[in-house]
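Quick start: read one record
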Amino acid sequence: MVRTYCEVFKVTALVLQARLDSTRLNGKSLLPLGGQPLILRVMEAFAFLPCDKKILACPEDCVSSFSPLAEKAGFSLVAGPKEDVLARYCLAIRQSGAERIIRATGDNPFVFIDAAEALNREAEVLGADYAGYGGLPLGAGVESIASEALLRAEKEAKDKAEREHVCPYLYNHPEIFNIHRPPAPAKWQGPDCRITVDTQEDYERAQVLYDRLSSLPPEERSKGENIITVYRSLYG
């Protein structure tokens, strides 16, 4: 008998990380995208992801800027260390009681929600400590992580990069953790596409892409095939 989504883990939480200061595009989380802050557009996309809780995890100095946006999008807000993002995620785990988290970042307004759901289901059925698709466009993906594994990483990870980027300690230690890193299904493959927002050029491209996708019904705008089709119609 195949286990259903809710039978595998009792609580699954989306944890979205964001901050205001960026060396390449400072304040990008609040830059307008379709007339609203970019971070709000990211949270809006996740409205179509099935999970039990949705959390915006930010540094303490961002609370006043992000709190009203999180409330508007139906997200809880968790504030933690700026540079130790791993600790911030573990704080979100403890506060939410989540047994599995879906990790996402606030500079990706065109995340593939259908791919995120599929990945998380695979991870749950396989009992993976860490799961992530390969071959997606840059900015399209999420990671699915067992909370117990991430809490262990918090105790053991010492390298600054392992704490800032959250998951390297997991996938760099396959002898400890159950790692699932398959190629993404063909319909979501697009390693040549760049849909993250990390630079001014990225932001300008995102404005055009968002405008084109806005002609689709809301539930269709965050489907991977649609995003790839529109992106390639614009940028080849």
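The chain has one domain: 10-235.
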